[in-house]
Design a protein that fits this description.
The structure is a homodimer.
Chain A: H1 6-16, H2 23-35, H3 38-54, E1 56-57, E2 64-65, H4 71-74, E3 79-86, H5 89-98, E4 103-107, H6 125-134, E5 139-142, H7 148-161, E6 167-170, H8 186-194
Helix pairs in contact in A: 1-2
C-alpha cells in the first residue's frame, strides 16, 4: 500500500503522542503543517524551542514561570498565609481564571496512587511539608479532585500536618450547579447530603 | 488576571492556528509539551524541521514526496493512461487507502471558487491541461467533492478538454452506503435518481 513520505510519517507519529490526538487528527495536522509556509513553521518551531528553554517550575510553589519565582508568588498583594494545594498546573490556571482566590498555591507533582504507581515521595510531599513549616501558614485548602487518588493524597498530607496548628480545608464536593440529582452516583449524593449547608447561617 | 508565562502563551497561540484546535485544546497541548522531557520536544522539533525541508510536491502530479517524483508516479505497474484528478493531497491519500485505483493522480491546488476567491490559474489548470496533452491519456476521472466549487471546477476543466478525444468521468454522487434516504437533501436525491444504475447490466 502507498504510504506517506518518511518525514511526514514521522511527524504524524510525533503528533499522535500528544494528548487527545488520534491517527486521523495527526494526519490532518501534519498535512496542514506541510502546506504552511516556512515562516509559519519556523514560528511554531521557535515557540517549542522557547518553551523548552525558558519555562520551568517556580522554586516556591511549582507553578510554571520563566523566572525563578512565578507571578503569583511574586505578587505582594496576595495572602501568604493561605496555600491552595493543587495536583497540577492546569488546575492552578483553572482556579486563577475565577479570580476569587487571593492566596498562594502549591503544585504537587501529581497524586498518590494507592495501587502503587505513584508514591508520596514522587509527588513532592517533603517539599510541601517543608514549605508549610517554614512559612507562617494559617490555612491549607486542598483543591484536589475527589477521586481515589485525590482522597488518598489529602488523607496522607492531612496526617503529616495534624500537629502543626493549621486550619486544613478542602473544596466542597456535591452536585454541580445546574446538575440534576438523578444523574449523579450514590457516593456523590451521600457526600452532598452529609456536607449539607445550613441555609440559616 | 494572572496569565501564562509569555513563551507558553505564544506556543498556545501557535497551536491555535492549527486546524480544529481551539483555545482549550491548545492550552492542554501546550501544558503537555511543557511537561515533556527535552528529548521528546527535540524529536517533535526535528520532525517539523524535516517536513519543512524535505517534503515538496511531485513534479508530475503534485502529490507529496521527498524526491522529485512521488512513489505513485514512479510505480511502473500503474496505468499511465488513467489520471484521477483530486482537489488536495488528503483526498489522494484517502483514495490510495482503498487500494482499488491503479492509475495515476493529478492534485489540483484547490478548487475554483465562483465567488472569485480562487481563479482557474490559481489552482494549476494550465499545468494540468499541459500534462494531459503531453501524456497519452485515455481517461480522466474527477474524484472531486460534489460541492458548488467542485462542480464549477469539473465543468471548467471538462470544457478545456472536450476536443481532446479523452474519456472524462466523475465519481458517482448519491446516497452513502448505509444512509437513510430521508436524511439527504433534495439535490442529492435528485442526483441519485437521475444517475440510477441499471441492475440488469
Amino acid at each position: 500500500m502507498y504510504s506517506y513520505p518518511e518525514s511526514l510519517e514521522l511527524l504524524v507519529e510525533q503528533l499522535r503522542k500528544l494528548p487527545s490526538i488520534g491517527r486521523k487528527s495527526a494526519q490532518r495536522l501534519a498535512l496542514h503543517i506541510v502546506e504552511m509556509n516556512d515562516e509559519k513553521i519556523n514560528n511554531l518551531i521557535q515557540s517549542l524551542e522557547d518553551v523548552k528553554n525558558k519555562i520551568h517550575s517556580c522554586e516556591i510553589c511549582g507553578n510554571l514561570t520563566e523566572d525563578d519565582i512565578c507571578d503569583v508568588c511574586k505578587d505582594e498583594n496576595r495572602d501568604k498565609s493561605i496555600i491552595c494545594v493543587v495536583e497540577d498546573v492546569t488546575n492552578l490556571l483553572t482556579l486563577e481564571r475565577l479570580e476569587t482566590f487571593r492566596g498562594r498555591y502549591h503544585v504537587l507533582d501529581g497524586l498518590i496512587s494507592p495501587s502503587g504507581n505513584m508514591m508520596p515521595d514522587e509527588i513532592g510531599v517533603d517539599k510541601f511539608i517543608g514549605r508549610v513549616k517554614k512559612e507562617n501558614v494559617k490555612e491549607i485548602i486542598f483543591a484536589i479532585s475527589p477521586t481515589v487518588e485525590g482522597e488518598t493524597t489529602m488523607l496522607f498530607l492531612k496526617e503529616l500536618m495534624k500537629d502543626l496548628d493549621i486550619k486544613i480545608t478542602r473544596i466542597a464536593s456535591g452536585i454541580p450547579v445546574g446538575g440534576n440529582l438523578e444523574y449523579y452516583d450514590d457516593i456523590t449524593l451521600s457526600k452532598a447530603m452529609k456536607e449539607r449547608i445550613n441555609l440559616l447561617g
